Amino acid sequence: MSSEPLLATVATAKPASLAPVPPAPAPTFAPVLTAMVYTRDRDAEGVIRQCLTNLLPSAEFISGTVVNAIKQLAQRSSPRLLIVDVTGSGDPVAQIRSLAEVCEPGTGVIVIGDSNDIRLYRELRRAGIVDYFFKPLVTTLVTQAASGILTGTVEQHASRTGRLVIVLGVRGGVGATTIATSAAWYMAEKRQRRVALLDLDLYAGDAALQLDAAPTHALCEALEHPERVDELFLERAIIHVTERLSLLSSLENLNSPMVLGEESVLSLLDKLLRAYRYVFVDLPAEMAYRLPRVLHIPGICLLVSGPSLVSARDVARWREIIGPGSAERQILHILNKNGAPGGLPSAEFLRAASQAPDITIPYDHNIAVASSLGVKGVLGCATLQHGLAPLFSLMAGEAEEAPHSLFNRTLNRLLRRA
Ligand SMILES: Nc1ncnc2c1ncn2[C@@H]1O[C@H](COP(=O)(O)OP(=O)(O)OP(=O)(O)O)[C@@H](O)[C@H]1O
Ligand SMILES: [Mg+2]
User: Fold this and answer.
1) CA-based torsion, 116, 118, 124, 125: positive or negative
2) pLDDT, tens digit (0-9, with 9 covering 90-100), for 26-70
3) 363 CA distance to ligand 1 centroid (A)?
4) 269/219 Cα distance (integer angstroms)
5) Nearest ligand 1 atom to alpha carbon 169
6) Ligand 1 binding pocket includes 173 (Cβ within 6 Å)
7) 250 lines ligand 1 (CB under 6 A)
8) Pairwise CA distance, residues 63 & 149, whole Å
C-alpha cells in the first residue's frame, strides 16, 4: 500500500471546492518536511547531518535512543522522517513496534544500530520501518532512504496505516455512540494517539453532541462527491475536538435522505487511515447493511447490543453477515446495559446470542444521566470505565496486564501484530 502521507501534498493542493466548510482551524498536522534524529552516537550523527543537509532546511537532533523517541512522540506530532538508534537495545523489534503505536502512520522511520543481522532487518521491515542500517553508516544509502521518505517515493509497509475500529450498534439505542465516543476520546486523550471518529449516523449528529462539537455538512459533501475530497478539504472539514481527536459528523435534514455509496465510504476511510493511528466508525445497523465491504476491512469490529431478546438475536444475525473473525479482523461483542429492565437473564441471553459476550457493561442509570454532560461526564462513571477497561487495554496493546483468558491472550497476540 502506498504510504504517501496526508500532509505531504497539503502545501500544494488545490483549494477544496466543497462548501460550506467550517472556518479553517489551526493546523494540527506536522509540517510537510520535518525530520527528527535520535542518537547518542557522534559519528552516526555526523553522517546523518551530512545526508540531510541537501534534503531539507533543518532537522532536529536529539541525544537519545528509540526509548526517548517513544516517550517524546507520544506527546507531540510526528515528523515526516524519523531516524532512531537502537544500539544497545535488548529487543529492538518490540521497541520499534511501540514506536509505531505512538507515531502517525505517515511518518517514515529509518532505524540505525550496531547489529549486522538479516533476521533483525526483516523483522524491523515487517514492523513497518522503511530501512535499517548498521554502523558505520554509509552516506549514500542513508541519503537515498531519507530522500525517498521526504519526497514520498518509498513504499512503506502496510502496517504503517492506522487501525480501524468499527462500532456497530446491532439496533438503535444500545449505546454504540456512547462506546464509540468514549473509546475514541480515551485513545486520544489518555493514550496520546492521533484518532479520528467518523460518525456515519448522518442524521443524528450524536457523536458531535457527546464531544461538545458542532456537526457540519462537510461529511455528507465528502460522501456525495468523493472525487472532490483532497487533503486540504479533509483538513478543513474535520472538526478538531482536541489536538489529537478529530471528528467527522453531520446533522442532515431528515427530509433530504442521501444515498450512501460504499465506494465513497471506502475512499474516505482509506484517506483517514493514512493519517490517523486509530479511526473509529460509529456505524448504525441501518447504515451497516449497505456497507458489506467496509465490514470486512481488517481491524476491530465491535458489535454492541443491549440485553434484550431481540438484541441477542441481532448479534447472532450480524455474526452471520460479518463471518468469523480472523487474525486481521477481530469481532468482539459488547453486551451493554446488562441488567436493564426487560433484559434477559445471562443464561437465556447466551442461548439466544449463541455465544457469550466478550465484554459486559452493566446498566447504570448514572451513565444515562451523565450523557448530558458529554463524553467526559460519561467516562467519569465507574461502571463504564470499568466495563470498557479490557477494551482500552487491548487497544493500547496492554493485554498482558489483563486476566489471562484465552480470549485476552489471543487478542494480545493479534494486536501486537497490528
Ligand atoms: N451502560 C449503560 N447504562 C445506562 N445507560 C446507558 C448505558 N450505555 C448507554 N446508555 C444510555 O443509553 C442512551 C443511548 O445511548 P447511545 O446514544 O450511545 O446509543 P446508540 O446505540 O448510539 O443509539 P442510536 O441508535 O440512537 O444511535 C443514552 O442516553 C446513553 O447515555
Ligand atoms: Mg448512536
Assistant:
1) positive
2) 334 444 468 999 999 999 999 999 999 989 988 999 999 999 999
3) 10
4) 12
5) 21
6) yes
7) no
8) 22
337: left (phi over 0), alpha (psi -120 to 50) or beta: left
Whether residue 280 contacts residue 197, with contact meaning beta carbons closer than 8 Å, is answered with: yes
| Mutation test residue for ligand 1: of 185, 315, 371, 376, the one with most atoms within 8 Å of CB | 371
- Go through the domains of the chain in sequence order and give each one's CATH number: 29-158 (3.40.50.2300), 161-417 (3.40.50.300)
Helix (H, G, I), strand (E, B) or coil at 282: strand
Q: State pLDDT tens for residues 383-393.
A: 998 999 988 88
Give the ligand whose atoms come closest to the C-alpha of residue 182: 1
The CB of 339 under 6 Å from ligand 1? The reply is: no
- Asked if 278 and 193 count as a contact pair (C-beta separation under 8 A), the reply is yes
Q: What is the pLDDT of residue 317?
A: 94
pTM of the model: 0.71
| Residues ≥6 apart with Cβ < 8 Å to 19 | 221
